[in-house]
Amino acid sequence: MSKRVVTFGEIMLRLKNPGNERLFQSPMLEATFGGGEANVAVSLANYGIPASFVTLLPDNDVASACVRELRSFDVDTASIVYTPGRMGIYFLESGAVQRPSKVIYDRANSCIALAKPGCIDWDAVFSDATWFHITGITPAISDGARLLSLEAVKAAKRLGLTVSCDLNYRKNLWKYGLSPIDVMPEIVRHTDVIIANEEDVQKALGISAESAAGADEGTIDTALYKRLTAQVLEAYQNVSKIAITLRESKSANHNDWSACLFNGTEFMLSRKYQITHIVDRVGGGDSFSGGLIYGLNTYDNDKEALEFAVAASCLKHTIPGDYNRVSAKEVESLMRGSGSGRVQR
Residue 71 is part of a domain; what is its CATH number? Predict the structure, then answer.
C-alpha cells in the first residue's frame, strides 16, 4: 500500500501496578511504553499501512529500548530526533468495579517539553506521506511543544497531506499559562478530520450541544451529538469529518462503546459493544483513531470506516498495555459480526 501516515507526539515509559493493586501496594511495577500518537502508529503498522512516528528522545538505553519496540511493530522511527532532556513517565493504577483507574504524569523537562520550532525538518518528514495525525496532548505539554505542533500541521497542509487531530483533552497537562481554548482552534483550522469525545469538543473548541453529560450516568442521547457535530463543521468549514466516541461507563470494568461520525452530509451511528470485563482501557481512544484512519484510507464509505474503528477499539479493551496488538483481519471479523469469543481452532 503506497499510503504513508506520519504521527507526532510524546512516547513515555509506562509504569503500572500488577493486576488491580494500588500503586506500590507491592514493590514492583510493570514497565512498558506508550503514548497517544505512537499507539496510533502501531495500530496502522499492524494493519499494513506504512506508519512513521516522530518524537524527541534522549540518547540513552531506555529510549533505545523504546525505539526497538516500535521497530518490532514495523513502525518507521528514522525521523526521531535525539536531544538533551529526559523521557517522560506515566504511572497507571488500574481500577476495578467502582474504583476508577488513575494516571500520574511525570513528564516535566522531557525532550519534547523542551522542544522548539525548527528542531524537526517537516519537509523531509512529510516527503512521501499522505496523512498526518496529531493529538491535543502534544500542544498541552509546553509552549514549545505547542509551537512545534502548529508548525507541523501548517507544513502538512502546505504539502497536501490530510491532517487528523484527536482533540484529547488532558486537564492535568495544561500548566504553562494557556488553556486548550487558546490553542486548539488554531490547530483545528489546519485539520481535515477531528476525533474527540464530547468533553474534548467543549474544552478544546468551546462548543457544546446543550449537555451530553449523560455518559457519566451510563446513558447517551445521540440527538445531542448530531447537533454537536453539525456545530463543529459549521464553525470549522475546513473540517470534512468529525467522529465522536461514545463511552457509557457502567463501572471501571464495564463500558458500552460506540461512536458517531458526521461528514457534512450524513450522520452515522455505529454498532454498540457491551464490554463487560475490561482488561485495559488505556489506549482505547488511540485504537479508535488508528482504526478510523485505516478505514478512511481503505473502505469506500465512511460508515464502514466508522465500524472498523469501533470494532478495533473494542478489541483493544481486551489487551494489556497501550498498544492495540490486533490485525485488520481480526478487526474485520468482529466488525462483520463474530464477537462470541469462542476458541478458534
Answer: 3.40.1190.20
